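Exercise: predict the fold of this chain.
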Amino acid sequence: MKVLIIEDSAQIVEAVSLCIQLRWPEAIISSAVEGKQGLSLLEREPFDMVILDINLPDIDGFEVLKQIRESSDVATIILTVRGREDDQAKGLELGADDYIVKPFRPKDLVARVNAVLRRSYTHQTDIEQPHTVHSRLSPDISNTEGLGDRIVRLTHAEVKLLHFMVEKLEHTLASEPIPRNAWGEVFNNPDQLKAAIRKLQDKLSESLWHTTSTDHPGEGPPPTNPD
């Protein structure tokens, strides 16, 4: 397993590295003290996991995450002192697989890393052949969803959330059982779940508009949510 830690605190890098290597002795760990340096490393070599701070000395960690998601679906965990609900929601909206607030307990960090890696591995190995789940949606192994003739890039969590919601189309879903079934764990902050659902809706709505507008030129874009 190869892990990239993008963090400017040497103490945090050392602590995270120790936690990972105690659980996965074979892990190869690299680190970057700046966002641009981390992005450069990701361009040069593949990683299984990125652990990303938000408060970086050169560019904001959210911008780093945004650029990562433009070209990669590598499992990514935000690890930061910024624990505000809107920051957590933003991180998940941009494609983070999990969000951990410092200070962290080593046991919790290892458990969260293990959960994200398990979801990533399950997605890559269990979905071997494309299959239709509903209407014009069909998942494939490349962590995307096909909508008509368009491809929508989804994170691992979004793929699992979509599958779960499609299976429950005829049922009203309470917010609590969704993350338990979709992610295998319950988030303490319901805003994280709401942000993930909103991001998934935006991605699918945008692609559906592009697809239908080709068939029906002149129609306006879909209405925006007033909320």
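Check your answer against the key: Residues 125-149, 211-221 have pLDDT under 50 and may be disordered.
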